[in-house]
Predict the 3D structure of the following.
Amino acid sequence: MHVISRKALTEFWRIHPDAEAPLKTWFKVASRGSFRNLAELKQTFKSVDYVRAGGQGFYLFNIGGNKYRLVAAIHFNTQKLFIRHVLTHAQYDKNEWKR
């Protein structure tokens, strides 16, 4: 899976240093994986969820024991994962990312 873009992760962990190790692990696993659908994604990322927001579908990953959330758009047909947001759980709960 081609993860676009790692820059979002590095910018986030500069502000939240304790997120660096779990985000690096997530990136490594995601970029080495090949997933055809949500079911296959769940085999690797047990807590991933799919939600619809603003007319689009997003995949939500729990990071660092659910302390952080990563919101992504995934195109399984092209094997591309687009990181849309990396948030603290408190930021995620405000639902501003849905706009």
